[in-house]
Amino acid sequence: MTTLAQVRKAALALPEVEETTHFGMVAFKVRGKGFASVTKDKAWLQVNLEASDAENVIGEIAGAELILRSDAVIGVKVPLGGINGMQSNALVYRAWLARAPKKLARVESSAATADVGSIGDLPASIGRPATRALAGAGLSTLKLLSTWTKAAVLDLHGVGPKAVDLLERAMAEQGLDFKA
Q1: Quick check: 171 and 146 in contact, CB under 8 A?
Q2: Which pLDDT belongs to residue 137?
Q3: Helices marked H in 68-179 — which ranges?
Q4: In what order do the strands lie in the sheet with 65-69?
């Protein structure tokens, strides 16, 4: 079972997302385009998807229903009680990719598949989640990282205290530090 809190966490972890309300529902937008919402009764997750992707979701998740506007498929809604966190995260991400500007989606997609040690001069020892989080935030070098505060880096989903400690050591070796 998934909750609004899980959907919110997944949506807000993506670049340039804002939370709003839409007809009384909690909704999420990327650059002004809605991509996901949770109904007022918190029973359904609604995501905007291309018609073919929406049809795929119907085949993947029991109880999923197409969302139509003027007989055109604009997305799908799924019962929150019938999906787990991984499924809701995947749906939110797919919807974000479908609605985000192409360049932003391309950057996020490449960051999501970044391998440790493959991004700029970031140390491989920080691990895959931290590498992907930093790449997604556009932080590909220790010099760029020095323009951020330690607290802001820790706020990135996937970056923990151990990764920050390793980054801080690598930055110190180059005479850099986090922004005060």
Answers
A1: yes
A2: 76
A3: 85-99, 102-112, 128-136, 142-145, 150-154, 161-173
A4: 17-22, 25-30, 33-38, 44-48, 72-79, 65-69
pLDDT digit string, tens, across residues 138-177: 788 899 899 999 999 998 888 999 999 999 999 999 999 9
Answer for the pair 22, 55: CB distance below 8 angstroms, yes or no.
Answer: no
Q: Is the pLDDT of residue 43 over 90?
A: yes
CA distance 18 to 29: 5
Contact 49, 76 (CB under 8 A): yes
CATH class of 114-173: mainly alpha
Q: Which amino acid type is present at position 32?
A: G
Question: One fold for both 4-109 and 114-173?
Answer: no
Cα diameter, the chain: 61
Q: What is the pTM of this model?
A: 0.66
Q: Are the C-beta atoms of residues 25 and 37 closer than 8 Å to each other?
A: yes
Contact between 125 and 155 under an 8 Å Cβ cutoff? The reply is: no
Q: Output DSSP code: residue 100.
A: S
Q: Which class would CATH give 4-109?
A: alpha beta
Which sequence spans correspond to the domains of the chain? 4-109, 114-173
